Amino acid sequence: MMGFTGRSGKTDTPLAGKDALFLDLDGVIYRGPDPIDYAVESINQTALPVAYLTNNASRTPEQVADQLRGYGLELVPEHVVTSPQAAVALLKTMIPAASTVLVVGGEGLLREIAEAGFSITTSADDEPVAVVQGFSPEVGWPQLAEGSFAIQRDPSVVWVATNTDWTIPVQRGVAPGNGALVSAVHLAVGRLATFAGKPERAMFDVAARRMAVSTPLMVGDRLDTDIKGARAAGISSAVVLTGIDQAKQILAAGEDQRPDYILQDLRQLHLPYPEIIRSVDRDDVHTVEVGKAVVRRKGHVVRVARAGEKIDLLRAGAACIYDSGLKIFGLDVDPALYSDKG
Ligand SMILES: [Mg+2]
Q1: Does residue 282 share a domain with residue 261?
Q2: Are 257 and 284 part of one and the same domain?
Q3: pTM value?
Q4: Distance from the CA of 151 to the center of ligand 1, in angstroms?
């Protein structure tokens, strides 16, 4: 936990000692069609190589790169890592080269599978050795049924899904995502798919290999995909509060979803990360100070002693709770740590 190293920790920026920046897209760079404040200029400010990691399996890297360039980012399609690419990397470790693969999904997935040298089919009658499933708005019952038949044909048939996202937010509301479509097949075949996208480590491995880097920082807005995946891949992570997860989720995060850094917005990538100062007194009161914020824990009771900056208060609260070794439901946490007021 690099961000929480105590008194000896230096006040480096979160990017100090890193050799690349890995970024999630939605909730980090844009929200809906709108760019998030400070994101583009903060990304352009770094001299490190940048990779963009997306679970979205329906768009090609070119389409993603075009969208990001529209916001003012400088990148080529090779800087975009998609869940279909992670699925291909997984498939290569599971089935022989040039095997026949049944594809349930869209253009992005079809192209990656073809470029990897696999032979593509849409029929279970061709006896594919693997089924790969990704989201596309065109996927309907016939494709889901063919996939199910192919998987049932033989227990040795490999089933890889690009990502587990249960829902996708679209213009008119929330719609079923790839996880829901995979679940439909699961109900038919009684088996579980192997997943490739975040929070599995395949995408991080693909990105690190392609860019030839070893100490990246992953920045995302979701603990259950971005942060969990980075941790599974053994790389540092920062959660940024411009998207889905907020103070409440961060304080409650399970051990495998805890970020090294907590950022208000991407400008803080370039600012010294404050020292996390810990102490314990003789009454067994544990104190964590971050900037002017002070949080104390005695037993299962966590209280704000001094508020300070809101982001520092969250950093102190998270460190105090994570240090406790106690589950969030066993703690009495001061609501001032996660309330929206102030
Ligand atoms: Mg996101």
Answers
A1: no
A2: no
A3: 0.90
A4: 31
Is 332 tagged catalytic?
no
Same domain, yes or no, for 95 and 187?
A: yes
- 266 and 282 together in one domain: no
Distance separating alpha carbons of residues 325 and 126, to the nearest angstrom: 53
Structure confidence by residue, pLDDT tens digits, 246-274: 999 999 999 999 999 999 999 999 999 99
Distance from the CA of 245 to the center of ligand 1, in angstroms? 9
Q: d(Cα 317, Cα 251) in Å, to the nearest integer?
A: 7
Tell me the C-alpha to C-alpha distance, in Å, between residue 280 and each of 86, 203, 295: 45, 40, 12
165 — pLDDT class (breaks 50, 70, 90): confident
176 and 223 co-located in one domain: no
Instruction: Note the pLDDT tens digit of each residue in 52-74.
Output: 999 887 788 999 999 999 999 99
Asked if residue 170 and residue 90 are part of one domain, the reply reads yes
- Distance, CA 55 to ligand 1 centroid (Å)? 9
Q: What is the token pair recorded at 301?
A: 């009771």
For residue 112, being part of any structural domain is answered with yes
The rounded Å distance from CA 164 to ligand 1 centre is 13
Could you say which of 24, 221, 224, 245 is catalytic? Answer: 24
